[in-house]
Amino acid sequence: DVCSSDLQTWAFRQLTVKLVQRRRAMYLKALHSIKWLANNLTPTEVNKVSDLLRPCQHEPDDPVIIRGERCHHLYVILEGTIHVHESDIKTWKGNAEAHRKSYICEFGPGCVIGELEFLFGQAHPDLTKAQAYCYAHSQVKLAKLSQTDLDESVTALKDLLMMARNSNGEE
Q1: Mean pLDDT in runs of 10 for the chain (171 residues)?
Q2: Burial zone of 115 (CB within 10 Å; 0-12 exposed, 13-18 middle, 19+ buried)
Q3: Is the pTM of this model over 0.90?
């Protein structure tokens, strides 16, 4: 007997494999464009991070991060723009003056958002909640990394984010 009754076979469709390869290449390109990340992680660690990223998309005015809520993901912007505001969209939508007063900054492709809440969420209860509102300004394609995946897989990235946070606080 060459075969057993509990033999399992797996088949991957060529289209699925190509989709996964394209997505990984896109994530790797985005991660390599984040200099502080690419310069401080080994190629193996960058590959691990790219494998942990998951796609998500937001339409214009969709909230990505909401002030006062727990942020469970770190986001890498692949396409589009995120605007950061001090106040909720309901208070400034359609009112140019209120919009101007609420607007803080914007982030585009290659930027990372949500890293502070993501990084310090468990260690510092006062930082478990987002400090601002982040809205999709245009249709936005993001890659997101969950806290659970990071904790289980890539401690080097967490250490790097901690170092980046510490150096930013000193300037």
Answers
A1: 58 74 91 82 85 93 87 89 92 89 93 76 58 91 85 67 63 37
A2: middle
A3: no
